[in-house]
């Protein structure tokens, strides 16, 4: 499902999110903004020049040829421009609406660049097993800083998959699902400036970037501050617990 911004109808957006488990908001950022953040993303990764490749071991089974991936946790702690996006009402109002709450809290962020010709895929999975919460009011927003057609390895989803709740994952090689088959997932090609919102129960993944251009995205995982973690895990992210919209009614410190 897609919704066109500027300022999408939040009621319609929330309804589609509830029915399908995801919604693609078109043009949440302008093309100029997306290009600006794309350049800052690549400049930041070049400046840090880190050699690590976060490609999942399970992802290596999806292709015969070696693939690569660049990433960075907590970009907002390296460049203040990313911090501005975290509290941008265009984003936080949608995040609040799809969760059906007033308050939005940061869980973590990750910057991803899939290099051209061999950008790593992600097997189908839910985000739930990585950081389960008590009431499951946890979601993700993927900001597209450049175009992401199918050949760039765009995100794929299984519509309605969130309704079945947690699924049994294969843990080896990072949490991933053995079923359904990757080909059963629906591609969500996006343009620069589009943002894909989905629940942490929504089954999703992405393909190999076989194009001649990089695919650049920024992932923001957010939650309702009234939804405590079910287990103590993934609590090392910088800024976890930061309020992006509203207040934390629990009064607790970041966990």
UniProtKB/TrEMBL annotation:
GO molecular function: 2-oxoglutarate-dependent dioxygenase activity; iron ion binding
Signal peptide: none
SUPFAM superfamilies: Clavaminate synthase-like
Keyword set, alphabetical order: Dioxygenase, Oxidoreductase
Segments traversing the membrane: none
Pfam families membership: PhyH
Name of the protein in question: Phytanoyl-CoA dioxygenase PhyH
């Amino acid at each position: 499902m897609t919704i066109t911004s500027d300022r999408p109808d939040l009621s319609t957006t929330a309804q589609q999110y509830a029915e399908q488990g995801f919604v693609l908001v078109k043009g949440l950022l302008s093309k100029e903004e997306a290009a600006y953040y794309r350049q800052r993303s690549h400049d930041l990764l070049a400046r840090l020049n880190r050699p690590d490749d976060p490609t999942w071991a399970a992802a290596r089974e999806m292709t015969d040829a070696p693939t690569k991936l660049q990433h960075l946790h907590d970009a907002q702690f390296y460049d203040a421009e990313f911090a501005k996006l975290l509290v941008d009402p265009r984003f936080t109002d949608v995040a609040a609406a799809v969760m059906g709450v007033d308050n939005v809290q940061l869980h973590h962020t990750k910057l991803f660049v899939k290099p051209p010709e061999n950008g790593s895929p992600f097997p189908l999975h839910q985000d739930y097993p990585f950081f389960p919460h008590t009431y499951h009011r946890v979601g993700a927003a993927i900001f597209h800083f450049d175009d992401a057609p199918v050949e760039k390895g765009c995100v794929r989803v299984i519509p309605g998959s969130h309704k079945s709740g947690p699924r049994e994952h294969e843990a080896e090689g990072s949490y991933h699902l053995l079923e359904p088959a990757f080909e059963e997932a629906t591609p969500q090609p996006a343009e620069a400036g589009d943002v894909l919102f989905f629940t942490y129960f929504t089954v999703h993944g992405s393909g190999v970037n076989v194009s001649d251009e990089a695919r650049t995205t920024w992932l923001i995982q957010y939650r309702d501050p009234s939804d405590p973690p079910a287990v103590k895990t993934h609590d090392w992210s910088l800024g976890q617990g930061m309020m992006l919209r509203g207040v934390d009614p629990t009064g607790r410190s970041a966990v």
